[in-house]
Write a structure and sequence with these properties.
- The structure is a single chain.
- By secondary structure, the chain is mainly β.
- It folds into three domains: about 150 residues, Immunoglobulin-like (Sandwich), CATH 2.60.40; about 210 residues, Immunoglobulin-like (Sandwich), CATH 2.60.40; about 60 residues, no CATH class.
- It has four helices and 24 strands.
- Strands 2, 5, 6, 9, 10 and 11 form a six-stranded mixed β-sheet that branches.
- Strand 9 and strand 10 form a beta hairpin.
- The longest helix is centred in the C-terminal third of the chain and has 19 residues.
- The relative contact order is 0.15.
- This is Arrestin-like N-terminal domain-containing protein.
């Protein structure tokens, strides 16, 4: 009898999903929003009959904020609590296992999971049975959960189709387009620069794109305390004479048609072909662009110029996703896309020296986790797709956004389809065939 008395009750928490998406709504608070749910099961194992005071499941937010080098704030708050057994009266449970299914509704205004040098936010779902244990102590267990904020509806991703145009006294009319199918952390953007009709001969020294990030920290314990961080400037790409763009060409301003360009003079006495192809270069984020000498191109008067280049948003080691409207978080993140063209006009009427055309627009960068919903295809069968070895010597094959080669994706689908046909026709699968032989 004594060993049985010394056995402590145990509690187990099982979550049906450890990864969930929030879609905060910028609408007023009285308008209901689509709040996601997290479901799971609590298993309470009792070695003998026992009275339970209460059984609850809570969503706990744990945070830490850095205001300065010697000042920080840390704490934890209970965001949602669900009671599985009434705390007003004790209930007698028999010996054995007791299962409790639960559902937690997550407010869409919750702060998403965050991890940066300025602050961290993460969540735990904690199950607690009060009054259990050898001497009446609580029995507690927890599971971590990742919460991501998505700016788009279910099944969609955050795209970008940005167009900036205007007129500059030295370079004339210009237009810059930025397109991205998935504007996420680590995502790819396609940039296109058009100079329609420069009024004079100009030298293009460099073309660059940056992302400026502004952080705002607000205290949870002292709501009036707030600090706005200095904007961080991260480089996406810099193209110049030593690092040429993916393609660029010049043409007569009377006919701006891609592919019909004329040679571009890069320096006196030297020319290169109208369309120049070069591999995409992954540049690490930096603060300042490298110096460019000699210039990238020289555009004669009366000619147009078009440049196309592919850039990538820095990874999550350098940049965080944007804070969405309707999110209540102590750590706010805002982004601006900055596009710069450094040029020099070869004209007696224009001032000598380099000038910079700077364009900037606010953008919303979603988390790199938001792409998961589009990669989760329906499960057609329980056939396990075998792992296929890929020849790593091929370095120029097309790849998916998940970095998997398209050859591998097609081969995996074909193998899965062959297994599915075997099951439909009643033939043994490869795994069953190996077991039989």
């Amino acid at each position: 009898m004594l060993p049985q008395l010394l056995v402590s009750p145990t509690i187990k928490l099982t979550l049906n999903q450890t990864f969930t998406f929030l879609r905060p709504s910028p609408a007023p608070e009285h308008i209901p929003s689509a709040d996601p749910m997290v479901t799971g099961m609590v298993t309470l194992t009792l070695p003998r009959r026992k009275y339970i005071k209460s059984l609850s499941v809570r969503l706990i937010r744990i945070y830490s904020l850095l205001f300065s080098n010697d000042e920080y704030e840390a704490g934890r708050t209970t965001e949602v609590e669900v009671s599985l057994a009434s705390p007003k009266e004790e209930r007698l449970f028999e010996r054995g296992q007791h299962h409790f299914a639960f559902t937690i509704i997550l407010p869409s205004s919750l702060a998403p999971t965050e991890g940066s040098q300025l602050g961290r936010i993460f969540y735990k779902i904690v199950a607690t049975a009060k009054g259990d244990g050898i001497v009446g102590s609580d029995v507690t267990t927890y599971e971590k959960i990742i919460i991501i904020a998505s700016p788009t509806a279910d099944g969609e991703t955050n795209d970008l189709n940005l167009w900036m145009e205007g007129f500059h006294a030295e370079i004339g009319p210009y237009a810059v387009s930025t397109v991205s199918q998935h504007l996420t952390v680590g995502g790819i953007l396609n940039f296109n620069l058009i100079l329609a009709h420069p009024p004079a001969t100009i030298l293009i020294h460099s073309v660059s794109a940056f992302i400026c990030t502004a952080y705002g920290i607000k205290s949870i314990k002292t709501p009036t305390k707030r600090i706005d961080r200095v904007t961080q400037r991260l480089c996406m790409f810099v193209v110049n004479r030593t690092s040429p763009p993916d393609s660029h060409f010049a043409s007569d301003a009377s006919c701006i048609t891609p592919g019909s360009g004329t040679p571009i003079a890069t320096s006196p006495g030297s020319f290169h072909h109208a369309v120049v192809e070069s591999p995409v270069r992954d540049l690490p984020p930096s603060i300042d662009a490298p110096s460019t000498n000699p210039p990238l191109v020289m555009i004669p008067e009366g000619h147009s110029y078009q440049l196309t280049h592919l850039g990538r948003v820095p990874s999550d080691g350098f940049i965080r996703s944007s804070t969405l409207l309707g999110t209540r978080t102590p750590l706010n993140v805002a982004h601006e896309l900055v596009f710069e063209v450094t040029f020099e006009t070869l004209s007696q009427d224009s001032p000598k020296g380099k000038s910079t055309l700077k364009l900037q627009k606010p953008i919303t960068i979603s988390s790199c986790c938001c792409i998961l919903e589009n990669l989760l295809v329906p499960i057609y069968s329980e056939v396990e797709v075998p792992v296929v070895k890929i020849d790593t010597a091929k370095t120029f094959e097309d790849r998916c956004v998940c970095a998997t080669s398209k050859d591998q994706l097609v081969l995996q689908q074909r193998l899965a389809g062959m297994e599915f046909i075997r099951v439909a026709e009643g033939r043994p699968t490869k795994a069953e065939y190996r077991l039989q032989h």
